[in-house]
Write a structure and sequence with these properties.
With about 425 residues, the chain is an alpha/beta fold. The chain is built from 16 helices and 17 strands. The strands form two sheets. Strands 6, 7, 8, 9, 10, 11, 12, 13 and 14 form a nine-stranded parallel beta sheet that branches. Bound molecules: zinc ion (ZN).
Length: about 425
Amino acid sequence: MDVQTADLVLENIGQLLTMDPASGGPGDEEHDPVAGLGLILDGALAAQGDRLVWAGRQRDLGSHVACTPGARRVDLGGRVALPGLVDCHTHLVFAGSRANEFARRVGGSSYEEILAAGGGIHATVKATREASPEQLLALGLKRLDRFLGFGVTTLEAKSGYGLDTDTELKILRVASELGEAHPVDVVPTFLGAHVVPREHRHAREGYLDLVCQEMLPRVAEEGLARFCDVFCDQGAFSLPEARRVLEAGLALGLRPKLHGEQLARTGAVELAIELGALSVDHLEHADAAAAVKLAASGTAAVLLPGATYFLGRKDYADGRMLADAGCRVAVSTDFNPGSCLTENLPLMLNMACLQNRLYPREAILGATRFAAEALGLGEEAGSLAPGRLADVLVLDTTDYRNLIYHFGVNHTHLVFKRGKQAWPPPG
Ligand SMILES: [Zn+2]
């Protein structure tokens, strides 16, 4: 029998949710209410360096794992452990506050009306252009601390609040620095085609030329992003415009992602599938035909219920339809200053259940395994199996369902990132 050497052992785990793909898919709730969780009762985990070397039953630990001298053993007292959460869609790096427009929205102004009046995203663009990299870094670190406190260990960060070459590059460089300086892994995405900046409002084509011919080549040359995203919707970038940007990114090695079907059914799903996008995100207006096509594709469906909520809209995406069709459904915060300012990913899982109609185990899959897959990191993060990163969230409860059911509070007990305790910060 192979014995693994370990310098970190987590033992006495009441419910260990491995989310291991080897344990099967989401299944169906009626026949298997724990399908997809890879649930092990009375479990234990072992890691060496930044990787897991073993996951299994507590009683089998001794025969499979040998601790190195000085190894850390942590008794979790019957608590729940699951993979560190993955937030696969955030707009992490920006400056300024839009607290002033919140009251206007409560008073009835729509996002589109505020945007048309020069507020909304344009206010964030102005503040972000004026901010120094040091200021953006300091803001980002505080946000990452909050994400980590809610159990997030990997996070995607989009640009898109610069909308000129210098600021877009500044945002992406800050995103990379944040990943270096903070325990949370940051995966950068270029979103130059977020909105047409005000100075180009009478020259959309000129702005798209800038994105495709100047920004994207610079981003690729400096290796500043892994993915290229576009806000493709009614009143945003059209399908042909999105295609142009995503194809330019693909030619430079940046895999597509897409904001689509949020405000209207536009065909963004079909474009995302055709271009081999890793994910299409929002999907409030995706229909049954879109769900069937997505299920048959390699493109993940990302739900952002917090954005629907924070915008005061009622048109939540039909997550039940997407999951029943067989889509890989991920759930994310969409963290951003205009339409969802929260780092509380577990709260989004509660919304994904009550508003998108996912089952709790599907929502947890959506913030672990399927979220990692939506970032092309399925072999690294989002599940607890030998060889994967030792990213572990320990909840201060003995029932994993409390992560979603007991909502709006923080259940985090401990977070390990790459085999090291990251939260609470050690020392
Ligand atoms: Zn977004």
